[in-house]
Amino acid sequence: VPELPEVEFARSCLSRWLGGRTLRRVDADRTRVIRGASQQTLAALARHRVTRVERRGKWLLWHLAPDLGLLAHLGMTGKFELARRGAPPVRWSRVRFERPDGAVVHYRDPRQFGHIRVAPLSVLLDSEPLKSLGPDAKDHLPNAQALGARMSKSRRQVKEVLMDQTVLAGLGNIQATEILFLARVHPARRAASLTQVEIGRIRAAIAKSLARTLAMNSGDKITYVEESKRVENPFLVYGKAKSPCPRCHTPLRKMTIGGRTSAFCPKCQPRVGGARPNRRVSTKSSKSIAR
DNA sequence: AAGTCTGTTAGGAT
DNA sequence: TATCCTAACAGACT
Question: Per-residue pLDDT averaged across A40-48, rounded?
Answer without folding.
Answer: 93
